[in-house]
Amino acid sequence: MTVRTRFAPSPTGYLHIGGVRTALFNWLLARHYGGQFVLRIDDTDQDRHVEAAVGLILEGFRWMDMGWDEGPEVGGPHGPYFQSQRGEKYRAAADRLIASGHVYRDYTTAEERDAEKKAADAAKIAYRFRGARPTPEQITQYDAEGRPYALRFQVPLGRKVVINDAIKGTVEQSTDEMGDFVIMRAGGNPLYNFASVVDDADMQITHIVRAEEHLANTFSQILVFEALGYELPIFAHVPYVAAPGSRKKLSKRDGAVGLDEYMNKGYLPEAMMNYLARLGWSLDASQEVFTRAELIEKFGLDRVNSSPASHDPDKLFWLQGEWMKTVDLADKVEAVLPWMHKEGLIHESVHLNEKRKIAAVISALGDRLKTYSDIITLGKYFFTDTITYDPDAVKKRLRKPGVSEMLVKFAEMLKTVEPYEISSLETAVHAFAETNGIKMGDVVNPVRVAVTGQGVGPGFYDCLHILGRDVCLKRIADTIAMLAAEPTS
RNA sequence: GGCCCUGUCGUCUAGCCUGGUCUAGGACACAUGCCUUUCACGCAUGCAACACGGGUUCAAAUCCCGUCAGGGUCACCA
Description:
The protein is built from 20 helices and eleven strands. The protein has helices spanning 17-32, 50-64, 87-99, 110-122, 136-145, 192-202, 215-227, 259-265, 269-278, 292-298, 313-324, 329-342, 352-365, 374-379, 391-398, 403-416, 422-436, 440-452, 460-467, 469-485, and strands spanning 4-7, 36-39, 103-106, 150-153, 160-165, 169-174, 181-184, 207-211, 234-238, 241-242, 309-310. The strands form five sheets. Strands 3-4-7 form a three-stranded antiparallel sheet. Strands 1-2 form a two-stranded parallel sheet. A two-stranded antiparallel sheet has the order 5-6. The termini are far apart. It binds one RNA strand of 78 nucleotides through helix 4, strand 4, strand 6, strand 7 and helix 6.
């Protein structure tokens, strides 16, 4: 038997990282066993703007490099892969359930049910719908009146439904705790608990790995599986993802929860995959960094935690740094281009000389470049005509007696450095400090702020070198002018 | 409210099934020191947890019961 898993998002507009983790577990499981991973769009209740939302989902999957074997765009033998297009399958299954007597017509109105729900609520008891089957006479009469009806599954009383969950273990519930649930709305649309079973069976899904909020639904679904005569798949309910530092479910209020936000910041998909895999899953007591291949090889449901994990942006960031260290310079240069272009730092087509400069900057930045968008926050001043001064750095490094004088002398010295290269710059600056009796820190720090505007950054000589003599001289002169305009108090 | 799930450092987790090797291990974060012209990297050190209460046992993070806390579900949502 080949393992088949699926991820079935409803197109709501964005990809929650908790959802991505669930998808990842499914994908990993399928790849681990050499099976198939199916992407299905659960849009039974959606009608508008689905297209754009689906596009967003697919984009996220492509970015993560989680390919789907069947689903939107690629099709497959069990299509269509949009629930909104599978109406016939649901109708056929419902007809079978009507024929076998598992299902009955419910002619009640929303008002009637609301009243019962309110009453149950007031009495603080669980609301359970248990309707009586309409008699053939009633059916004839109601149909003549044109009354709409929903289809309800009649839950057999007095038995236990058992879930052998791969993550939660054995979970059981008495059918006495369950009400008769609707499988088809009055309009003829299937409900999740029904559509999902029909699809999972039809698509021959062997492992249903999904969020734990569906655990309670599973009892109903098992009843449907049985009534339809299908073999039960293996269920695995993964705990929810909590907000940073809490046990509350992660929601949009908790900051960056959409995959797109990390994509836009320039995170690496390898880091995201590594992070998400470790969120709720571990191999042993020590391994933190996993390659994609290792994940596929080592992943299993047996080591998925049954308790919730909270999203830890710090850990993601650390992993990102670890993965960034593995990227080649040339790849970083290419990867950084879109961000630079968006910021207006470069044009659409980039000249070779420009690329050389970008490579020099990235190389000088070294491990400081944690995400690709850092090229803007950390290296912008290498590519602009004017710089913005960081007020704190100005105050700390420039607003001191003697700085202007030092800057004047430094500029004079800089003019004479030959060749204008890192090693000669280094010797020259050391000599400058020595002959003037100034500590290196009192030379390097103010000059850094003068030429970059920032108090922190790449190596000092890298900065001087990449910027070039003319730019450095100009920026030092500008800084001296600025200091003169607003003298140190 | 009924039913169901969950509870180890701030966080991710190892250990729990098969009690003793756990004075509870690793990682992130944090703090300090080293390196250093800044920051980052790297290295070293430190801080820090078995939710609570009973019980079983020579022995409990591990087994049992209860309490508390968090989450889910009880829709003609998914």
